[in-house]
Amino acid sequence: MDGVRVLAHGPWIEKVRVASFRRNGITIYAGDAPGSTPQVNANLTQIRDCLIYDNGQHGLDIGSGGNDEANVILAMNVSASTNGRDGIHDDSRFGCTFVSCHTEGNKHRNISCERPSSSTYSVYLGCYAEGDAPAVFKGPIAVVGGDMDITPDSTYWGYGTVRGGHGPSALKVTNNFSKVQLYRNVSGGIDIDAGEQKTGGILPDRQPSKAQGYRYEAQNAGRTLGTDPGHPSREPDWNTTEGSLTRDRDVEWKCLGELKPAIVTSNTLGSNVDSTIIQDVQSMTVDGKLHPVAGDSLFRTQVQVSRDSDDPRIGRIETSLLSDGQTFHTYYQTAYENGPRPGALMLPEAWIGRFDNSGERRICVVYSGTPFNALAGSSNFYRPGDLILNGLRDAVRDGPIGWAVQAACGRGKAASTWTPSTHYYIGQTVKPTPPNGFLYRLTAYKTRGPLNPHDNISGQSQPPSWNRDLAQHVGVATEDNRLEWETLYDLDENKWCIEPIPQGVAGQENSNATDVGQLKRDFNALLDKLRAAHLLGE
Prior knowledge:
mainly beta; twelve-stranded parallel β-sheet; seven-stranded mixed β-sheet
């Protein structure tokens, strides 16, 4: 029998413990059509501050035995745990609302809400489900806040149309799911659906399961073995050979091979913590669940405010790849202007050709000073073929119209001093101790390195090849623990690396050439040079 069965319109069930009944803890089946069992209207039921646990089937069952008049139900601050099937089973016709509900250790699903034929929304607001059993959502369902593991085939939204108009469209909901759940050791076993996937976790004696790191798929629905004195490991004898089968009471598991890391991303607009953050693209790894914002890594778009007060990039929009929250910046993309200014040249850094050591070409802009004393965009290094334009806003231009870069170089004053056991971002330049007239730019992290970028750190001592008494060769690579550095000229000591481009020559006469064939040859030779410099496609 059920613990509580609702047979009336609009009752309140408050501050009740419903435990250890053979069927459901609380059952709400209702319909007003002749032949309905029961023939009753149970709409507007409220369930508050209740504990529902250790029942034989569902903790709270709404509508699975009839749902025509089992709707608009409010469940608030309800905990449904260790029940024989689902903690909360929502099969309402017109939707219910669940606020601050908790589920844990249920033997099929912590929450089951499969209403694909319905046209109205159930809402789950600030609910929490432990990671031991997933929730399944299929149909018009809104999930706002909270923390739940959700099956990968779930379909739900954070917004949707309502009768008479459109609902809000700015609400973002993130799927926090793992396709592969941990195998659960529960007394009496758990119900498994065909197609569910599991992997091993840590056993009660804190030893890793034999199935850990392997993926298994249920070939049929049924109940697992569960805790059994004859199985000290409390798990079946897993076969880890790909394609093999393992018998687990009613369920047959097929090994799908190794469980490899997967990457999932979420996209968040705005931040409650920092108003300068415009967008975060967050990634997770390994277990299929999204980590907090300070997790493994994320790509951020942000208004730049954190640099020196005289830095020309302040107020521009900048994108960067971060790791471990805001602690480590691994790569900066161009910092862009907020908007056009009358008469100003809107050309931050335009990249031409391949972004690698051999074909990288940039057009940069210096808004004040020269390349020797001001940053051009977000660059602290230059390559042969780069063009730096003079973007002075003065009525009369002061100096050349730009500069052409002759050799790979970087600004020594903008470079940091190399330090041991330090994480550097790609593109950052350092100078050795003592200085040797050269700089070193981080071009790559070594292959087969750590999963988290912030674990890519320099060695315990400075590379010996940077000794000032040894010859340095621009363009060569130096290995430094997990890092790879490229040798550059120190621009502060090698000003010849950047050649001024004059604005023009007074009295320059127009061409009087009459040999059109020679002009064509000269023009084609120029095109060949541009192609060789990767400034034109082949």
